[in-house]
Automatic annotation (TrEMBL):
<dbReference type="InterPro" id="IPR018225">
    <property type="entry name" value="Transaldolase_AS"/>
</dbReference>
<dbReference type="InterPro" id="IPR001585">
    <property type="entry name" value="TAL/FSA"/>
</dbReference>
<protein>
    <submittedName>
        <fullName>Putative transaldolase</fullName>
    </submittedName>
</protein>
<dbReference type="Pfam" id="PF00923">
    <property type="entry name" value="TAL_FSA"/>
</dbReference>
<keyword id="KW-0704">Schiff base</keyword>
<dbReference type="GO" id="GO:0005975">
    <property type="term" value="P:carbohydrate metabolic process"/>
</dbReference>
<dbReference type="InterPro" id="IPR013785">
    <property type="entry name" value="Aldolase_TIM"/>
</dbReference>
Length: 217
């Protein structure tokens, strides 16, 4: 099982990464903007180095640029930060070209912004390390997100044993559990979903009762 925390928020890192639950952290330009951070190598290098002080096996950061060369340049700069970096690349035509070049440099990649089952085929053919479907957004668009993810799993079972399905855009802890029960093993989710993992009212009440009893109340 691999869980990633989908945020660039330093307070969230300090709260959740020491729990030891997370294999790593994922970010993208939208997540950076949400934390008031610019998407530049000058900003990202010190930021991600601080994240690497936590016990994380991987940090996934997204390259940017409308042209292939820009994606490669920003991707290589991100990869140079640390061997634990994985470079996220949108699954566009330019993105796929960039992935081929990044792999030639020994850089690990995640193809992201994935909505359609055939994109899992593309990711497998590209030999990407991860492919990241947007579970919540697929549902937002009126499609059956569970069925879509299940079909992607089938594609990767048959065609892409090198490519790992990283389910993103998860908004509910219950969806995380259901997808895990269905066979998915790699997820990224926000600190809000991490909070849901500890919000079961019966557990909260049981823990409070233990404390009352321990205090002899
Ligand atoms: C992942 O790369 C995306 O940031 C994220 O999972 C999207 O989540 P959202 O659809 O809830 O914004």
């Amino acid at each position: 099982l691999r869980l990633f925390l989908d945020t660039a928020d330093r307070d969230a890192w300090s709260r959740w990464l020491p729990t030891g639950l997370f294999h790593g952290v994922t970010t993208n330009p939208t997540i950076l903007a949400r934390s008031g951070l610019s998407c530049t190598i000058e900003t990202l290098t010190p930021l991600l180095r601080r994240c690497l002080d936590y016990p994380v096996a991987e940090i996934q950061a997204q390259c940017w640029g409308t042209e292939t060369d820009a994606l490669i340049e920003t991707g290589l700069a991100l990869a140079a930060i640390d061997p634990r970096m994985v470079v996220k690349v949108p699954i566009t035509e330019n993105g796929i070209r960039a992935v081929a070049r990044l792999h030639a440099h020994g850089v690990r990649t995640t193809l992201t912004a994935v909505y359609a089952v055939h994109q899992a085929v593309t990711a497998a053919a590209a030999g990407s390390d991860y492919v990241a479907p947007y579970f919540g957004r697929i549902g937002d668009s009126g499609r059956d997100a569970f069925a879509t993810i299940d079909a992607m799993r089938a594609v990767l079972r048959h065609a892409g044993d090198r490519t790992r399905l990283l389910v993103a855009s998860l908004r509910q802890a219950d969806d995380l559990a259901a997808l895990c029960a269905a066979g998915c093993d790699t997820f990224t989710f926000s600190p809000a979903v991490a909070e849901q993992l500890f919000a079961d009212p019966q557990t909260v009440e049981a823990a409070a009762t233990f404390e009352r009893m321990a205090a002899g109340l």
